[in-house]
Amino acid sequence: MSPCIVFFLFKGNQILLLLHSIKIEMSKQKIISKEEEATAQQEIWKYVFGFTPMAVIKCAIELGIPDLLNNHDTPITLTELATKLGCSIPLLHRIMRFLVQYNIFQEKPVSETCFGYVHTPLSQLLTTRDKYSMADFVLLESSPIMLAPWHKLSARVLGKEESAFGAAHGNDVWKFAAANPGHSKLIDDAMACDARVAVGAVIEGCPEVFKELRTVVDVGGGDGTALRLIVEACPWINGINFDLPHVVSVAPACVGVKHVGGDMFDHVPKADAAYLMKVLHDWGDEECINILKKCREAIPHDIGKVIIVEAVVGQEDHEFKDVALMLDMVMMAHTHNGKERTLKEWSYVFHEAGFSRYTIKHIRAYQSVIEVYP
Fold first, then answer.
1. Backbone phi and psi for residue 243, each to the nearest 5 degrees, phi listed first
2. Active site (catalytic) residues
């Protein structure tokens, strides 16, 4: 074989290798179609103005629109609604047009030339007296105090701030609430919203959780809403609502429920079962392990258990999987080390706290019910 031929074969291999490399690189790059590009150009506006639905819904709650519709037997016209609210017809029209577009309210004809507004299942959840009202939760998360930490999120991620909430307000959310009774009440009212939904789902989905329990201590139970609902559904249970002194001092009296003030990091009152709903996600692993150890000390080792109602991240078939991921971002913005956990992460804290086994049950809510045994 002549040197000239060898040279050309070598060059040919180089070209083939080069073409092969180009082919691999091109395969790595997704070719974006015109349709995908057009979709992206539409989708981006949801993030540019993503705050708008929350802000307008907050406005509707503050104006009292959902409650007015609830007290009106027939569709209420724009003029009637504006008169009752004492507000500008043109401005109210724009608010209602937006909320109808987002399927918050619905338009119904009242004559051949006029229509009125009525509730949808979604707007019913924004009334203040609905059993499953989420109005107070919306008001909490849309409050200036809770929105401010989001502007510190990137600083938190970069390690420039230990806590986004602390950077915004100079203290953690619990100390801030203790010093600001108005905000503390906003938190309690919002948590009561969530409790009504979650406890209803627990009792409907797995009522056996509370069978044969004589006493239950709700650790971090807020104003006692969750425990009150549990005792109402299971009247054989004596309840202990356990939270910080400034929280239980303003908690309403409940039949079958005793309010006790204290710190769950110091001790937990003794009971057959400790109930923790949306408490552990506020804390890092070390704090969670300490809380669980205190709960383990509080329950009998033969028949006792800890009942945890929390989100579990990574359940792909769960209808509320997106809510768990959103809540994880809320924890990053509003707490120091709080987070939503995967099943593996939950298993770790249970094991480290000295528990031997656990079971998990899914309910019709974003949370799951986890029963943990000594």
1. -155, 180
2. 281, 310, 340
Residue in this structure with the two tokens 């006692």, named with its chain if needed: 224
CA distances from 48 to 41, 45, 76, 333 (A): 11, 5, 33, 20
Structure tokens at 115: 């229509």
Q: Tens of pLDDT along 201-250?
A: 999 998 899 998 999 999 999 989 899 999 999 999 999 999 999 889 98
Q: Tokens 């009152």 sit at which residue?
A: 269
Residue 138 is which amino acid?
Answer: V
* Sequential DSSP letters for 274-302: EEEES-GGGS-HHHHHHHHHHHHHHS-TT
**CA–CA separation, 223 and 189 (whole Å):** 8
- b/e code 266-276 from CB counts within 10 Å (16+ = b): eebbebbbbbb
Q: Are 60 and 66 in contact (CB under 8 A)?
A: yes
CA distance 33 to 308: 47
Contact in structure between 343 and 362 (CB atoms under 8 Å)? no
Instruction: DSSP letter for 224, please.
Output: S
Q: How much is the pLDDT for 2?
A: 41
The dihedral sign for the CA sequence 45, 48, 54, 60: negative
Greatest Cα pair distance in the chain:
102
Structure confidence by residue, pLDDT tens digits, 171-202: 999 899 999 999 999 998 998 898 889 999 99
Closest CA to 137 of 199, 70, 188: 188
The amino acid occupying position 1 is: M
d(CA 322, CA 301): 36
Contact present, 227 and 251 (Cβ < 8 Å)? no
Backbone angles phi, psi at 215, to 5 degrees: -135, 140
Helix, strand or coil for residue 254?
Answer: strand
Phi-psi region of 314 (alpha: psi -120 to 50; beta: other; left: phi over 0): left
Alpha carbon distance 76, 84 (integer Å): 10
CA separation for the pair 255, 265 (Å, rounded): 27
